[in-house]
Amino acid sequence: MPATDTSKPPKALYQQLKSFVLERIQSGQWQPGDMIPSENQLVSEFGMSRMTVNRALRELTSEGYLERISGVGTFIAEPKPQSNLLMIANIADEIHARGHRYHCEVSTLGRVAAPLAVASALDVPTGRSVYYLRCVHYEEEVAVQLEDRYVSPAMAPGFIDQRFGDQLQPSRYLLDNVPVDEMEHIVDALLPNAKDAAALDIDPQEPCLALMRRTWASSQVVTYVRFLHPSSRYRLGSRFATGAANQAG
After folding, report:
1. What's the rounded Cα separation, in Å, for the pair 208 and 190?
2. Taking the complete model, does pTM exceed 0.85, yes or no?
3. Is the Cβ–Cβ distance between 126 and 116 less than 8 Å?
4. Which sequence spans correspond to the domains of the chain?
5. At the top level of CATH, which class does the domain 13-76 belong to?
6. Which of 13, 24, 108, 115 qualifies as a FRET site for 169, CA 20 to 30 Å off?
7. 82-237 is classed CATH 3.40.1410.10
8. What pLDDT was estimated at residue 69?
């Protein structure tokens, strides 16, 4: 008889069911929009308790693989785009890499007097004139990111003169023109204000993920930006080798 591999503990029952569902998604057997078997069917097929089945489906839903509609059923969710938190990513590059159409609408580009929070983030005196840009990024004509960006004129003097849009994005311009040697990312979950919800064309009660980024060059702050993402349309995450050196692109 072959030796039994005891090097790995057996998976918990709910993890076994999660693996079953994920294998069918990854193999293409279950496609986005497909309805999966009901909880009752899974309980009967796998001989698991309803609590175990419910936990597996609940976790898969929170991880973005499933969408549960009360009174209707559980469906394979459309995959959400995901940004890497360890890199200074340009959203247009991400969207094009997925083979999707990208579009950008700029609503504001000009100078503003830095309020206290912005001045602190940019490390300049309150009221100092800084560049401000506001735009919305679209994937397949669906708003996926609202960008509010403040830029130090001393670090990127040409920023104000650019024609940002589908062909040139603020992140791409800054990456190409200002060598960045340090960055900071802070992620928060919040409800959008009425103005931001309108810009993203979402309900004000829809939770959003806010990514705040600062970048430095030669110890001077280059930009402070807030990216707002509807949680139903976008994900933020990273995967990296522990102990390995990681570079910010």
Report:
1. 5
2. no
3. yes
4. 13-76, 82-237
5. mainly alpha
6. 115
7. yes
8. 84
Token pair belonging to 152: 């130090």
Three-state secondary structure along the chain? Answer: CCCCCCCCCCCCHHHHHHHHHHHHHHHCCCCCCCECCCHHHHHHHHCCCHHHHHHHHHHHHHCCCEEEECCCEEEECCCCCEEECCCCCCHHHHHHHCCCCEEEEEEEEEEEECCHHHHHHHCCCCCCEEEEEEEEEEECCEEEEEEEEEECCCCCHHHHHCCCCCCCCHHHHHHHHCCCCEEEEEEEEECCCHHHHHHHCCCCCCCEEEEEEEEEECCEEEEEEEEEEECCCCEEECCCCCCCCCCCC
| R_g (Cα) of the chain, nearest Å | 22
pLDDT of the residue at 113: 97
Both structure tokens of 6 = 């005891």
**Under-70 pLDDT residues of the chain:** 1-10, 79-88, 234-249
Q: What is the pLDDT of residue 247?
A: 38
The token duo for 134 is: 């506001």
